[in-house]
UniProtKB/TrEMBL annotation:
Alphabetical list of CDD domains matching this protein: ba3-like_Oxidase_I
Entry's Gene Ontology BP terms: aerobic respiration
Xref: PROSITE patterns: COX1
Transmembrane segments: 50-73, 85-106, 126-152, 173-197, 209-233, 245-263, 283-306, 327-347, 367-384, 405-425, 445-469
A Pfam entry, by short name: COX1
Annotated protein name in UniProt: Bll4480 protein
Amino acid sequence: MLANRKLILAHFWFAFALFGVALTLGAWQMFIRSPIGTWLSNPELYYRSLTAHGTVMGYVFPTLVAMGFGYAISESALEQRLVGVRWAWAGFWLIVAGSIMAVIPVALGRASVLYTFYPPLIGNVFYYLGVVLVVVGSWIWVALMSVNLRVWRKAHPGAPVPLAMFANVAGSYLWAWTAVGAALELLLQIIPVAAGLKATIDAGLARVFFSWTLHAIVYFWLMPTYIAYYTIVPRAIGGRVYSDSMARISFILFLVVAMPIGMHHTFADPQVGAGFKFIHSAFTALVALPTLLTVFTICASVEIAARLRGGRGLFGWIRALPWDNPMMLALAFSFVMLGFGGAGGLINMSYQLDASIHNTQWITGHFHLIFGGAIVIMYFAIAYDLWPHLTGRELTDLRLIRTQLWLWFVGMIVTTFPWHWVGILGMPRRMAYFDFGDPAIAPQALSVTFSAIGGFILLTSGIIFLVILARGMRAPQADAGPYRFALAVHQPATVPVALNTHALWVALMIALTITNYGYPILTLALTEGTSVPAVYVGAQ
């Protein structure tokens, strides 16, 4: 039951339209930084582009996808009309308004601060207010997911919450708490300076606040992808979820251990003590647990589908998988990129090894492989799976869909693998220009060229994706039937309270965050003489 198709389509279309613009900017950035590009006379244009690209891809795009997908999950999994539709539209329009408010100063060169805000660099106040509006709009979605679940619980006392909705609400709670760090940084530190109420800022404290958000936001990005792994892929390929309980434990683990890990991004920052850096490094290692649990569970679910199709033998069942099914293809590509990206993350979390690749192109390669690779390719799959149910029209050109997915996978590999290599060689990130005529970096020119080529492959794939969706709006009408999620091999009649509610895990998430961030934040806030003069973007 999808009673509010226009609401969901609005979120997806706005998300993917902004995605197309940001993707184009990303390809341009790689081109002008490469040997095949020409010297950019005004490098500030590069940082405008980089700020717009990062802001859209980091904040607006994944938030809109999570919200649109979340509304679809709420109506389909709970089989009830969405409660609070007017509020949902209000949240959407707040995000639209915030996006426009933020992009105008960026386009005018008044907010080239990258999506990390980069204090003591200070942009135009309307950029930050626009980001705040995006967050507020998304918090309306968080509240609505909680309200809709409560309404369903009253009508179904003691019943197991459908897995898709349980995971969806967990993701919304993770985002609500994740965003608090950046919100505190903006409201308490950056916006007062940007508005002219203060002239100095404590850049170290600001970075700690942002580290609260910086890494946990990745797991918010991942939530729709993992929901698709568990609740869409098995159904799409004719199988079942290996274990409902293991799936719930995975999402609970993400909720608990994803938050207190962000300070591993400040290993090189002197204002944070080594003890807290070690604690965050250890918790970062714990995040591997829900991922490894997911890899096992989904591989088992896929094997079930293959054996139901006649697959035999220890590995012979792999040939029986429906490789012509775009959902199977997307899953395989996503897992490969998640594996490589996750392996790179092990280097980032190590206090010793991180020093060798800190602020190099390795970091760029790592997070693009995780977000742009493993996550975004499943966003495509989610859209393909939902589109017939949202439009009443079938996506018939499966060959073109497979081509688009192949191009995205190849493009991401060609883009990110050379970044990892030149990062090991010491190439810094966030640079608008490299002189490849210099003998010291001339050997890196070929790798950077490959990355630029990969960027244009990605752009081609992105354009094809948008064309497929647009054509799907005009395809012949077809009855796709109700939207369903995968069932478990042993669908539970009852679920333990700990695996059917979120309160305990949210409390633990908040407690761990306060434990791991409270002392550093309090110490920095009470230390005098740590503020520095603000540097205003565009000031003469």
